[in-house]
Write a structure and sequence with these properties.
By secondary structure, the chain is of the alpha/beta class. It is 33% helix and 20% strand. The strands form 2 sheets. A 9-stranded mixed β-sheet has the order 1-2-3-7-8-9-10-11-12. Strands 4-6-5 form a 3-stranded antiparallel β-sheet, with no helix packed on it. Strand 10, helix 8 and strand 11 form a beta-alpha-beta unit.
Length: 282
């Protein structure tokens, strides 16, 4: 986060704390959404610089030879020693967690009662959408996952599937339900001194930007929504887009200049997110 943004956040947080301790016994001071975001975001000790290099791998033998400032890795599968090694190499690590779907292979899968399990996510076998309206059930499970990320030394969290309200989940999830859940995710991660990215959900960028620190997108070029994330790049915040289709020449000649115009970092990856990738400097 650049200095002017950080300064304004601290100033706003100070105003909130001052208002809340102004000596009026029993009084209640309303706190705006922006003020709530300010009081939690300053706790994030590291935020990736805009347009910094980025590697992402969830499948196959981990390749740490990729020249990238930041690695986005599976939170459950990655060992603390790997995160420590990245730190020794002056790199940072982002902890991937699915915050909006149940995955039947995860070690905590049995902690999710059937009442929160919805329709299958058609893209991935063994995944079902979660009912994010049931906060009292999901919050302690997700909090434990984030604590795992923090204990392993991760610097940030990449919460996937935070756009259930736009999908056929089997539940009547509204945009406001989704916002309430997503805002809680951001506050919880910040409370553990990690930053958090917005994963997709392009229709709620303006609402989520006050709570999230950077963004990781999928196929924004192909689906024509990259420009919706200018609230991040206008604040000098990192936006990474992962494209899964097209040849190397098409990626280099078309995708890279288009995303550079929006000050975004583009990657070409295989859908299974193994080590292979093409960057705009390849």
């Amino acid at each position: 986060m650049h200095r002017s943004a950080r300064t304004s956040i601290f100033a706003l947080a100070a105003l909130v704390l001052s208002a809340c301790s102004g000596g009026q016994t029993g009084s209640s001071v309303p706190i705006t959404a922006e003020a709530r975001a300010a009081t939690v975001r300053h706790a994030a000790v590291w935020i990736p610089p805009a347009q910094s290099t980025f590697a992402i791998q969830y499948d196959g033998k981990l390749d740490l030879s990729i020249d990238a400032d930041t690695y986005d890795l599976d939170g459950f599968d990655t060992k603390a020693d790997t995160v420590s090694q990245l730190h020794q190499d002056n790199r940072h690590a982002v902890c991937y967690i699915s915050a909006g779907t149940w995955e039947n292979w995860r070690p905590d899968a049995k902690q999710f009662p059937k009442s929160v399990l919805g329709n299958p996510d058609g893209h991935w076998k063994g995944e079902r959408w979660l009912d994010v309206r049931q906060l009292s059930i999901l919050e302690p499970i997700m909090a434990a996952r984030f604590q795992m990320c923090a204990q392993k030394g991760f610097d940030a969290v990449d919460p996937d599937n935070i756009d259930g309200y736009e999908n056929k989940t089997g539940f009547k999830i509204t945009s406001q339900d989704q916002l309430a859940y997503d805002e809680w995710l951001a506050a919880e991660v910040h409370s553990l001194n990690m930053s958090i990215d917005q994963k997709n959900d392009n229709d709620q960028v303006k609402d989520l930007r006050p709570y999230f620190d950077f963004a990781v997108l999928e196929q924004c070029y192909q689906q024509k929504y990259c420009q919706q994330f200018t609230p991040y790049t206008d604040d000098n915040a990192l936006v990474v887009d992962i494209e899964y289709k097209g040849s190397k020449s098409q990626f280099i000649n078309d995708v890279c200049p288009a995303e550079a115009a929006y000050k975004e970092t583009a990657l070409r990856k295989h859908l299974n997110l193994n080590a292979w990738e093409i960057t705009c400097s390849s």
